[in-house]
Automatic annotation (TrEMBL):
Native source organism of the sequence: Vogesella facilis
Keyword Membrane: no
InterPro entries linked: FAD-oxidoreductase/Apoptosis, FAD/NAD-bd_sf, FAD/NAD-binding_dom, FAD/NAD-linked_Rdtase_dimer_sf, Reductase_C
The keyword Oxidoreductase is assigned to this record: yes
Organism taxonomic ancestry: Bacteria, Pseudomonadati, Pseudomonadota, Betaproteobacteria, Neisseriales
Start and end residues of each FAD/NAD(P)-binding domain: 7-303
Protein name stated in the entry: NAD(P)/FAD-dependent oxidoreductase
Cofactor(s) the protein needs: FAD
Domain Reductase C-terminal: 322-410
Entry keyword set: FAD, Flavoprotein, Oxidoreductase
PANTHER family found in the cross-reference section: APOPTOSIS-INDUCING FACTOR 1, RIESKE DOMAIN-CONTAINING PROTEIN-RELATED
Length: 416
């Protein structure tokens, strides 16, 4: 069914671009407008910290669709355009140039922005963020052999940049405020393996490290630590997380928490407005608790799912969270939830690989994390996802035994 007013998607990143294409794939023939504040086509972000920095992939390979495809599908695009306000009562948006546009339904895929360091000297040249294609293009020339790179933040973005920079011959130091790497997302055993991997590749990692500020005249030349020590550098990459872009939704009176709050159908507190992607806070399928995920899979699957619901399907979003990170010749994969208090079972794999399984009190698998060379844990993580979805009680002894195939557990476990 078509409508005189369009479906408007605000945000032309991964989730927004995929949602626009999915609407056409699912038969929507009405007017469709995709608005983004970047000048680029919609694109995926995983390659920004890896292939684009290493020069093994061009920026165009990240694009979701082509200009010709959007034209052929009659998807109108407004690039380098900012939406300044939403008026839910009249179902209108206002653009930065004060134009107003009506909508039939509105999808907010506003994403997030890289957090800035709020320290003295943070405006010096040579202090880089990595969130966009333009950020990657600006950082790539600075990663030359022999250059001294300081990475502020030991999360996934910082560690992936560190790995890419070492492969390019840079001297790399990672500064992390916490007592282990990627502590918000990973159990200690995997954090320890990450640390060992980076140290083995010549990265200096400083944990429990507080910064006083950045030093330089025009361009950064050093980072000053809280104890007064100065670490000389040529470039600093700040990787301390992202801030979800919720201001537009909040100003419009929509419910906002750690993201734009939606129900299980990805519908906001306004019946005609939906939200997806990095800016969206939605009920976790496993326990209904609010969560916000900054992952490729979440953007991809929520975009496809919300397209169905925008067209009247009214289906709950039930996909489990899944994440991966490639660093050097190793891969990390995580599925489901890894609660801190869970009963954790460890399965040792060949070549120092490991699988961690988190069970609830009834023995049901809630989450799994795998670490290993190459893509060696991918199949086991896929099977773990199926075990989570089955809701079956599992034998911890069998989970820990590397000679027992997880596929066997999927077939033989008994439901609690």
């Amino acid at each position: 069914m078509s409508h005189p007013a369009p479906i408007i998607i605000v945000g032309a990143g991964h989730a927004g671009g995929r949602a626009a294409l999915a609407l056409r794939e699912q038969g929507y023939a009405g007017p469709l407008l995709l608005i983004g504040d970047e000048p680029h086509l919609p694109y995926e972000r995983p390659a920004l910290s890896k292939q684009l920095l290493l020069g093994s992939q061009p920026a165009e390979a990240c694009h979701i669709g082509s200009s010709q495809q959007y034209r052929e599908l009659d998807i109108e695009r407004l690039s380098a355009t900012r939406v300044s306000a939403i008026a839910p009562a009249s179902r209108q948006i206002t653009l930065h140039d004060r134009r107003t546009l009506p909508y039939h339904k509105l999808l907010l895929a506003t994403g997030g922005r890289a957090r800035q360091a709020t320290l003295p000297g943070a405006d010096l040249a040579g202090i880089q963020l990595l969130r966009t294609l333009d950020d990657a293009a600006a950082l790539r020339p600075r990663l030359q052999a022999g250059q001294r790179l300081l990475v502020v933040g030991g999360g996934f973005i910082g560690l992936e940049v560190a790995a890419s920079a070492r492969q390019l011959g840079c001297q790399v130091t990672v500064l992390e405020a916490g007592d282990r790497l990627a502590a918000r997302a990973l159990p200690p055993a995997i954090s320890a393996r990450l640390l060992q991997l980076h140290q083995a590749h010549g990265v200096e990692v400083r944990l429990g490290c507080s910064l006083r500020g950045f030093v330089g005249h025009g361009s950064v030349t050093a980072v000053e630590l809280a104890d007064g020590e100065r670490l000389p550098c040529d470039t600093v990459v700040v990787g301390i997380g992202i801030q979800p872009n919720t201001e537009l939704a909040a100003a419009a009176g929509l419910a906002v928490g750690n993201g734009i709050r939606v129900d299980s159908r990805l519908q906001s507190s306004d019946a005609h407005i939906y939200a997806v992607g990095d800016a969206c806070e939605f009920p976790a399928p496993q326990d209904g608790q609010p969560q916000r995920l900054e992952t490729w899979r979440n953007a991809e699957l929520q975009a496809r799912h919300v397209a169905c619901n925008l067209l009247g399907a009214d289906e709950p979003y039930a996909a489990l969270g899944w994440f991966w990170s490639d660093q050097y010749d190793h891969s990390l994969q995580l599925v489901g939830s890894l609660p801190a208090a869970a009963n954790c079972v460890t399965r040792q794999l060949a070549d120092s690989g490991v699988l961690l399984f988190c069970l609830d009190a009834a023995g049901r698998l809630q989450g799994a994390c795998g670490w290993g060379a190459g893509n060696s844990v991918a199949r086991d993580i896929k099977l773990a996802e199926m075990l989570i979805a089955s809701g079956k009680a599992l034998d911890p002894v069998a989970l820990a035994a590397p000679d027992i195939n997880l596929k066997t557990l999927l077939k033989g476990a008994s439901r609690d």
